[in-house]
Amino acid sequence: MNKFHIYCFASEYNSLLDKLPKNIIPLGLGNKNFPGHWLQEKNGENIIELNKYYAELTGIYWVYKNKINDYDNNDWIGFCHYRRLWLDNFYNKNHNIKSNIYSKLLFKKTNIFDKHNSILLQKTKLNRETILEHFINNHGEKLIFETFKILDKSISFEFQNYLNNRDLSICNMFITKPNILKNYAEFLYPFMKKILNFCLENNLCVDKNIKLPAYFIERFTSFWFHKYSNPTYLSYVELNKFYMSNFLNKYFNTLKIPGSFSNFPTNLDI
Fold this sequence. Notes:
α4 (142-150) runs antiparallel to α5 and α6 runs antiparallel to α7. The radius of gyration is 18 Å and the shape is globular. The protein is built from eight helices and eleven strands. It has a seven-stranded mixed β-sheet with strand order 3-2-1-4-9-6-10, covered by helices on one side. It has one domain. The chain is of the alpha/beta class and 270 residues long.
């Protein structure tokens, strides 16, 4: 049977993650202590010292360096966050499904996996700005214009054109084939090193922009998978504190509350 694993990143222990389908594998990021049955970024080859700048991208690096050889090209590898979980279909914003969230989580491949080689989050729509304008208005312009110079001319031109769009897949979340993940990582991390060096030299990683390289790569990842793979989309849920409560999850699985799916999926129109 082909493997289908989704690595779920968390910066602290969340008991809910122990209650997820078994193909969703918790990976603890950073130096905090996690249960022994969790994977931990600090064990194995890592760039844990860059987590404050790279966020979940250090977790993707860990999987690439420590787990990629466990898979063959018929397998699937994906990533999610402790409070952002994949759903098993593409759902409309307004729907009336009385099932619970747990029953709609992605725990097995669907027929879209037969037609595509990567899955992205359903797109966030920018109503008032392009992707470029949204990044500049939230994070400044200095880094993004520098990346146009760092990239090879042909890729830079295509990326600049992509930034004129008004929708993108956010959060550096994707599901793909091992060979595509390898190609992505081999391109991404040398590129990110140049980005981080520029940010540090120009004192850009401060205050709300401490994770500026990760915020930028969020836009670039969406572009990269459209350029180098054949993507499609699935919906997701973004969980609030109620669902993530360690206290409540001692007594029951908060995702299994009847009717809870009626509030989802998460749709972001900005």
